[in-house]
């Protein structure tokens, strides 16, 4: 069965809500403490925050048109438009307006000793809101002093109109003088451009440059068309002259050439010559060449040929004369084209210059019109009456209750934020400290058992590709105790207790199965008769780890019957178990595992030993382990949690499930030592005590 089937479920996409809630409940005191700290901190901060009051007034902005007829002529001062509303809002929020209001406030009256009380602070405290589809503004001011808020709003409303007029009038007088000067400059510039255009027309004697250019283009097109006709006729005459040259040598070709045959004289002479030659042929049949009739017809033929040559010569001279005439016409036409081209280019250039001057004049005229309009507005502003454009609808009142800070809301939000942070910290710590839990859930969700969890060994050694057999320190003691726990599980699980053959494999290479096999053999060897077999014929490692010669007889020699069982097995004191190494590496390991001798060997070994530990190749890399699984009750997988994500582990287990491979369980390897210490807190028991037990 193929191992490439896609998994039907993804374990990492499934969230056990009950387990998550149980975990959060276990962290309730931590969450409660963080939440309480956040609430207390919020209370301390809120107590130090000053109360902020707000005063507001509603005003209606009306246009100046109803108050002063002159103002209605100025678009910037007519009311009811969005532009005017935006302008008034910008004025209220301007720094200059804030500076003017700042010096109108009596500092001693409101006890403003705060050094932060500046025009900028006043400007930042003022806000303006608009009402949709109306010209009503709501002016607000916020400050810790309720009396000051009312005072500022009143000052804004009372001084807005006067401020606008004071800002407009001083500049209007200065601008009016500048506008008069600019009008004179532009007027002189327009006169200069118009004089240049007039000089251009007088110099070239052309009034309508565009019409003249169009006339020249038409004339040029006619000359080009005439040139094409003359060139075509010239080509035809050259061809006729070539045909005439051929006709001079062979007069009979004249009748077949429709161009030459078109001449009536030539056609008549050619027909006469043909009749005479036919008559000659008849006479030659009856008379000899000395006969008078024969001589007479010969003489007439010669006369006709002579006439034909003269006619061809005359036609040739007529064609030559016409050809010379056409060449003269072509030269004359070319000269005319050059002349018209020069005139056209000069006219186009003059037209471009004239258009450029015309655009400059139009631009200046528009600018002159705009400046004249502005000048009129400045004059109207100078004559405008001092009328108010602001109508107060709701005057400012003294605020009684602060608008902020919202103490209850801040405390509630701080408590919620503290709770969220505490939950987030708990979940993050769980992800980083107990990542193997997701691997465990993935294994269980696929219907397999978790046989044990082994911590990661950090032991420096020269040959890092070899399994770890010996070590020292608390970390190594925890690892050995974890191996003892796995041995205990094999003894306690009813479905595994009768299993004598432990086939240890992994999903991929370098996941720690060799180290696991050696330590399981050592652990079981403390209580039982054990033999460990290196069945990974492609990458054996047990012989080198146990410092045995690489060529030592082993499993392959035993199956090939080149050595006896006693020669192939040996006892290792460090393991306390018999060992059968790989032996000589074969070219095709599948032949050895598919042979009946391998099954027979396992049957015999079960009678001699209490436990047989097979180190198998990675089950997804090669098919050796699949063959071995036919002879055992199931495969025991070792998986590296640092190398396999829960998603990848789920995918690989799904492949094994679809292939029909029986798996007894999975051993999680290289788990962080912190979680291992908490799980395996009991110190290891000396081997001697176990043997005595």
* Helix content class: 55-70%
Structural class: alpha/beta
Rounded to an integer in angstroms, the radius of gyration calculated over CA atoms is 57 Å
Strand % is 5-15%
Q: Using the alpha-carbon principal axes, give the shape.
A: flat
Count of extended strands: 12
- The overall number of domains is 3
Strand order of the largest sheet: 5-12-11-6-10-7-9-8
Structure commentary:
By secondary structure, the protein is α/β, with parallel strands linked by helices. The protein has 3 domains: 64 residues, no CATH class; 355 residues, no CATH class; 222 residues, 3-Layer(aba) Sandwich (Rossmann fold), CATH 3.40.50.300. The strands form 2 sheets. The protein has an 8-stranded mixed beta sheet with strand order 5-12-11-6-10-7-9-8, with helices on both faces. It has a 4-stranded antiparallel beta sheet with strand order 2-3-1-4. β11, α23 and β12 form a beta-alpha-beta unit. The longest helix is centred in the middle third of the chain and has 92 residues. The N terminus and C terminus are likely disordered.
